[in-house]
Structures are given as C-alpha cells and as structure tokens.
Amino acid sequence: MFKRHPFLYLVRFRLLSKNTNIETIADYSYNNHNSKDEIPECFYEINSRIFESYKPKTDLDKVKCLSLWLHKHIKKGPGLSVSSDVALKIMLEGKGGVCSDMVQIFNNFCVINDIKVREWGATLAPFSKNYGGHSFNEVYCKELSKWVLIDPYWGILFFNKLKLPLSVIETYKIIRENISEINYVVIDKNEVLQKENVYKNYLNPDIAPFLICGYHNKTYDKFLKVTRPYLPVFITHFTVFLLNKSYSYKFPLDNYKNIFIKH
C-alpha cells in the first residue's frame, strides 16, 4: 500500500523529475555509475550458467539470451524493493519480482557482459491512479551502432517495417506521430503476450517515457540491506535523496509537469 500509493507516487515524481532533450541523454548509460567490480558476485555465478552452452557473438544476441533465460527461470510476483543480490535470489526461487525488479537485475547482467544498458520508466501524463507505470531497458548494440529497446519482464523487442530493432525514442516517436508501421516480437516463442499489456505500456500515445539516471547499485544495496527490515522502502529512498545520492527521472519527449495536470 505504501509503495504504490498515488500520493507517494506523485511526490516521487515532483522530487526526482527533470526535463531534458534527446541529445543530452544520447550517451548516458547505467554503466557510467556502476562498474563491473561493484556488481555482487552472485550475478557472475548465474551469468556463467546462462552462457554455459551458448556464446552469442553480437550484443543483441547476448541480451536476447539473457532475457530468455531470465524469463524461463523467474516467475512474476510481488514487488521486492530489496538489494540487487537479494532480489536475484528471491526471484530465482520463484517468490516474487515485478518489472522494476527485473530491470534492476538485468542492468547488472549487462554490465558484467560489457553491454551498455540503461533503465527507462513509463507513466501517464496526466497521471492516472489506474496505471501504476512500467519499467524496461535499453541496450547499446555495437554491431548496430544504436540503442535498442528491450523489455526483459515481458520479453519483447520492437521493430520497424524494415525489421530493424527500435530504440526507446524511435518507438515512442513512431507511436505518437503514426509515421510508420511498428511491430513487436516476443523473444520466448512459447510465450503468448497479452496485447493489452503492450498497448498499456507502449502503444498508448499518452505514455510519457523517462530515463532513470544516476542510480548507483552499490549505494542502494548498502542502504537497503541496513534499513529494509525496519523501515518502509520510501523512507530509505528519501534518505538517499536527502544525502544527494539519489537517481533522477529525465523526460526527453515531454514536459514532466504534464503529469500533474488534472483531467
């Protein structure tokens, strides 16, 4: 109730949101703040299992392999809001994990595999208490020389009519401007994705995507390990914010203040 309460949701956006532009965020990645030697050891152990029998040659194949493995070995469940190593353990035990938890661990796997990655969120502008938002990733594929949207929670990629994978900006611009055909592909061939989930999180032109910048995994792991058993998670995040060690939400396509406009 505390984590998802609309009041706290809006307060978080008021504190963390900033307007930006496409050029400013072009080179930003999660890797800027998180080095390989700071990623918990358990990620390396699982990573060796993921790629034990298959060695992808391209970045896109690597992230597809990662997404597919996680999709097959993790059951969706309640939100966790715990340190990344604990989140990975709980999710692999089949005891929970929402989209933001999946994004959190996917970020770390990309770092140790030398893939530039970043995390995006989605909200409605204006805000609706009926939509809780969504989290997904974007990776930089060196062989394509571009960013590519990948949603490891639902296991999907987006493509244009030429069958080229799309970035986050490209995806939402096409949707808003209706300038071209857009297709999505489910990475797990045995998975049937509900179309309403795709529309709700991507194809709805009222969705406002924002890039999550400045998240330092080691910092949040430390705070969550100490405070999580005793304090609500929003207090932990607010403490990190007061210490000026927090992440921020950057909106490249929208004015974030539109979130607070009343219907």
UniProtKB/TrEMBL annotation:
Gene3D superfamilies (UniProt xref): 3.10.620.30
Q: Where are the transmembrane segments?
A: none
User: Which InterPro entries is this protein grouped with?
Assistant: Papain-like_cys_pep_sf, Transglutaminase-like
Organism field: Corallibacter vietnamensis
According to the entry, every stretch annotated as the Transglutaminase-like domain falls at 55-152
Domain of life, source organism: Bacteria
Q: What is this protein called?
A: Transglutaminase-like domain-containing protein
SUPFAM superfamilies linked to this entry: Cysteine proteinases (SSF54001)
